[in-house]
């Protein structure tokens, strides 16, 4: 598509700072200097109006990966033309603080009126004539200000973001992004901020945010789609925050420059958000037809998962439910809505891990595999939890977006010594699974942040981890089970089913709750000679029932579904009782 010249669309796409300057001129003509503080919100509204009309228009904005692949890992230099780019990323570090900048810059041309105001927002100072002599944007200390010039100062928030860890190719393509491919060169000091450094094509970049209403909504592991002006900058240090300038070492070493995105606007994305290519208008389709379609799609998806699970339908059923789970609320410290799964007794299915990794990569937005081999757990370069030295937050492999699938291979764990790093890694993993909290280690303290990963553990025996459901697999040993390649239409339907099940809500009426309670009490009394049922069993069955109903496209729970879930849970119990005692993982 040819971009018409002299339109807001072309100016925003090709000369974003010129459009922002015109917005500043309009604001300045309507009031005093205080009105300039409204420029970030005004610019965000203007650029959103231009690009959110259609995904085709938005796709015309080049991705950060495309620009860096073409122009180099540092991004733009002061001598280059400012570029508008877009980037879907995960916030890795929000602790870089704020820095001061000049809201307006002095005119650089003799013909400009003395009272003209040049915008200093969105990295404009990095591309001004005075910046071209600097070896690093933001690296030249600002000249001393006169007392009446302090009103020209404003704050912007700095954060560090990375490519979405573990994102699958289909999900990136569904958002009009190229899938992770060629690894862009990342400085050694910044590799520690990549949760999965070296495993897939990853980018790390600074975000500089001028609108507090945007920065205040961003937290660690949030996935956001940002649009902004690309420049380059050294990594902020404590010296920068105290003096307003980068350290002399950063300024003199151009290799330390990082891509820096001056954010104009952003959108939050979760892993239950339907990408544009999966959205279907069903408003004209009768509800009965929709229900029949979903039942057929679900039946086909379970059959597909069953083949991946070596022919075991029960494991396939629970696998689907585990993929659709998400934390919906927290009551008395207990996460409601989550469902972690242990596929145990997997010695009879040696190809299960590879099969699951392949299949889940075709169905889920993000999949991360983690081995529990002792050499992996004890490796200090692959710690699972984030940690800070007081100035820089080092990423951990569990620092992942909510809704990511964590596929754990416990079968690789053998005998040996679990060292300090290994012990802390296991403790962090158990916290993520049992409490839905990821610990962040700091020099003199530890803080926990919310986590919500879809955890699936494959083990030889029953896992030592605190999981919700344990299902011994019964592989079809005498049948050659093959995972057939599904059609594109089937994959689209299954992905949509999983994501819509995650985002949908379920109502359990008081009448239904009373019936469930009555049946459970009766079952508890009738459990003669069997393991006594307790409150934990009821809570687990309720969690399974909610996910079972949602995966069928239902908005409420009925007795037929409840009894089906009870049957599934009882079959799991029978299989667990048949496992040899003390079977190692």
Number of strands: 19
The poorly predicted ranges are: 130-141, 242-254
- Text of the CATH class of the largest domain: Alpha Beta
The radius of gyration over CA amounts to 27 Å
Major β-sheet annotation: 5 strands, mixed, barrel
- Which topology of the largest domain does CATH recognise? Rossmann fold
Mean pLDDT: 84
Number of H/I helices: 19
Description:
With 585 residues, the chain is an alpha/beta fold. It has two domains: 8-269, no CATH class; 276-578, 3-Layer(aba) Sandwich (Rossmann fold). Helices cover 35% and strands 18% of the residues. It has helices at 8-14, 16-29, 39-51, 55-59, 64-71, 169-174, 188-191, 212-215, 238-243, 248-252, 287-308, 313-324, 352-363, 374-377, 420-434, 488-503, 510-525, 535-551, 559-578; strands at 83-93, 98-102, 104-105, 118-119, 153-163, 204-209, 223-233, 258-269, 329-331, 334-336, 341-344, 367-371, 387-388, 393-394, 405-409, 437-442, 445-450, 454-458, 469-472. The strands form six sheets. It has a five-stranded mixed barrel. The protein starts with 7 loop residues before the first helix and ends in a 7-residue tail after the last helix. The model is unreliable at 130-141 and 242-254 (pLDDT under 50).
Detail the topology: elements first, then pairings.
Elements: H1 8-14, H2 16-29, H3 39-51, H4 55-59, H5 64-71, E1 83-93, E2 98-102, E3 104-105, E4 118-119, E5 153-163, H6 169-174, H7 188-191, E6 204-209, H8 212-215, E7 223-233, H9 238-243, H10 248-252, E8 258-269, H11 287-308, H12 313-324, E9 329-331, E10 334-336, E11 341-344, H13 352-363, E12 367-371, H14 374-377, E13 387-388, E14 393-394, E15 405-409, H15 420-434, E16 437-442, E17 445-450, E18 454-458, E19 469-472, H16 488-503, H17 510-525, H18 535-551, H19 559-578
Parallel strand pairs: 6-8, 11-18, 11-19, 12-15, 15-18
Antiparallel strand pairs: 1-5, 1-7, 2-5, 3-4, 5-6, 7-8, 9-10, 13-14, 16-17
Helix pairs in contact: 1-2, 11-12, 11-16, 12-18, 18-19
């Amino acid at each position: 598509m040819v971009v018409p010249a002299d339109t807001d669309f072309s100016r925003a796409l090709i000369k974003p700072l010129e459009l922002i300057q015109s917005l500043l001129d309009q604001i300045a003509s309507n009031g005093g200097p205080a009105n300039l503080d409204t420029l970030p919100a005004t610019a965000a509204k203007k650029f959103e109006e231009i690009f959110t009309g259609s995904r085709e228009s938005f796709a015309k904005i080049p991705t950060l990966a495309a620009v860096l692949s073409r122009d180099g890992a540092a991004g733009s230099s002061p001598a280059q033309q400012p570029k508008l780019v877009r980037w879907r990323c995960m916030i890795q570090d929000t602790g870089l603080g704020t820095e001061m900048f000049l809201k307006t810059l002095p005119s650089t041309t003799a013909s400009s009126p003395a009272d003209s105001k040049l915008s200093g927002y969105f990295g404009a100072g990095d591309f001004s004539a005075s910046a071209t002599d600097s070896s690093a944007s933001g690296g030249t200390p600002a000249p001393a200000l006169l007392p009446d010039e302090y009103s020209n100062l404003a704050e912007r928030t700095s954060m560090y973001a990375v490519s979405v860890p573990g994102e699958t190719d289909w999900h990136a393509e569904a958002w009009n992004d190229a899938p992770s491919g060629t690894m862009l060169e990342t400085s050694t000091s910044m590799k520690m901020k990549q949760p999965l450094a070296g495993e897939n094509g990853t980018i790390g970049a600074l975000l500089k945010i001028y609108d507090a209403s945007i920065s205040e909504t961003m937290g660690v592991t949030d996935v956001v789609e940002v649009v902004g002006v690309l420049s380059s900058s050294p990594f902020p240090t404590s010296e920068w925050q105290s003096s307003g300038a980068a350290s002399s070492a950063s300024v003199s070493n151009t290799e330390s420059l990082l891509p820096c995105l001056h954010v104009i606007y952003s959108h939050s994305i979760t892993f239950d958000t339907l990408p544009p290519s999966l959205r279907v208008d069903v408003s004209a389709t009768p509800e009965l037809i929709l229900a029949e379609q979903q039942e057929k799609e679900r039946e086909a998806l379970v059959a597909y998962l069953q083949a991946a699970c070596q022919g075991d339908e029960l494991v396939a059923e629970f696998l689907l439910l585990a993929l659709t789970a998400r934390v919906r609320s927290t009551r008395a410290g207990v996460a409601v809505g989550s469902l972690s799964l242990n596929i145990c007794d997997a010695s009879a299915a040696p190809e299960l891990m590879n099969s699951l990794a392949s299949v889940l990569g075709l169905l889920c937005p993000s999949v991360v595999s983690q081995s529990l081999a002792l050499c992996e757990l004890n490796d200090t370069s692959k710690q699972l939890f984030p940690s800070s030295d007081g100035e820089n937050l080092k990423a951990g492999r569990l620092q992942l977006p909510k809704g990511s699938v964590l596929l754990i291979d416990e079968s690789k764990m053998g005998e040996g010594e679990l060292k300090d790093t290994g012990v802390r890694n296991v403790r962090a993993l158990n916290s993520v699974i049992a409490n839905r909290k990821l610990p962040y280690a700091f020099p003199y303290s530890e803080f926990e942040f919310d986590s919500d990963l879809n955890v699936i553990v494959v083990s030889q025996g029953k896992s030592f981890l605190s999981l919700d459901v344990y299902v011994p697999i019964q592989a079809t040993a005498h049948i050659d089970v093959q995972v057939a390649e599904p059609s594109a239409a089937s994959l689209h339907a299954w992905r949509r089913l999983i994501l819509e099940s995650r985002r949908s809500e379920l109502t359990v009426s008081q009448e239904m709750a009373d019936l469930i309670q009555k049946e459970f009490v009766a079952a508890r009394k009738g459990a003669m000679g069997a393991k006594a049922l307790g409150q934990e069993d009821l809570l687990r069955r309720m969690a399974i029932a909610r996910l079972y109903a949602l995966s069928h496209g239902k908005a409420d729970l009925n007795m037929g579904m409840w009894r089906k879930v009870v049957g599934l849970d009882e079959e799991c119990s029978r299989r667990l009782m048949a496992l040899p005692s003390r079977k190692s993982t």
